[in-house]
């Protein structure tokens, strides 16, 4: 069977122009020429065209198809494997798009007042979050309804606007007006995203993605401004009970160890969720890090640390912000008390053994002076 180019186009549903293009590329060239000078396609050409069409359905380029047709079965297997991976990625993207649309639809039913800026910000964050969050973390994120429904976004807008105004006016982060707004910020974040690991990843995404910063109005300069003010809030609470001398190490220590504190809160929360006791060696290792950093914040003064314990019982605001929660604090305190009890139990006597053996009067045994920590 021999076919002219028009006949082949009609039978295959292709255009004459496409067949001419294949011919020009050397991908499909008519093998026969008639006595009248017509170029004709034979059955081998038609079979080759069917292979080309099959490979095109794999979304391959014409160059890739040409190489495959001239190649071997191993090349084809490799291409098929690559195409399977590509299709799986497309399926994943389609599923993610479906999830985004379902989220937006749910939010629309919950709150009809959300404006276009919010929708654009939400879509942008959805498109970026898989870059920072695992599927399990995204599922956990959806459990935080204030974020999911847009309530946090709406509550933050006036706070962000006011903080921006203070920054533009060159007001120091320690100014009372600034601290009021930052306290509102901390309370909103603490209530909406209590999980420290999610909060850390969200903060990382915010710092690394200019598009998120542009839509939220919170850039890296504002985040630094808020962090300084957050430390100042804690400092001023402590100053109600402590002298300036006792508080002199607090600010520089917390600025220096801010990331370490966040990582510590994340680890302890993971231990809690995994059911690991605060007295377990793996937990005690991190709780010892807590003690070390806490003592650093108070100049390694045991007397000051004892006062801090009492302050924390009176001031619940000290557990708000930075990923710290009462749950994490209580967990750390349990571990600290266990370590202190162990130290008490193993404290050596200050009286020589031979004096005891002689039944002579002895002084009370002294326990090793302990380093206390944040409670």
Radius of gyration: 34 Å
| Estimated structural class | mainly alpha
Task: Give the spatial strand order of the biggest sheet.
Answer: 1-2
Binned, the helix content reads: over 70%
**What is the string of SSEs from the N terminus onward?**
HHEEHHHHHHHHHHHHHHHH
Domain HTH merR-type: 2-71
Biased composition (Basic residues): 366-375
InterPro entries: DNA-bd_dom_put_sf, MerR-type_HTH_dom, MerR_fam
Region (Disordered): 344-375
Overview of the molecule:
The protein has 375 residues and is mainly α. It has two domains: 5-71, Multidrug-efflux Transporter Regulator, Chain: A, Domain 2 (Orthogonal Bundle), CATH 1.10.1660; 144-346, no CATH class. 70% of the residues lie in helices and 1% in strands. The protein has helices at 5-12, 16-25, 43-56, 62-70, 73-110, 116-132, 135-141, 145-149, 151-168, 176-192, 196-208, 210-216, 220-239, 250-273, 281-297, 302-314, 326-346, 353-357, and strands spanning 32-33, 39-40. A two-stranded antiparallel ribbon has the order 1-2. A hairpin with a 5-residue loop joins strand 1 (32-33) and strand 2. The N and C termini lie far apart (90 Å). The model is unreliable at 350-375 (pLDDT under 50). Keywords: DNA-binding. Residues 344-359 have a biased composition (Polar residues). This is MerR family transcriptional regulator.
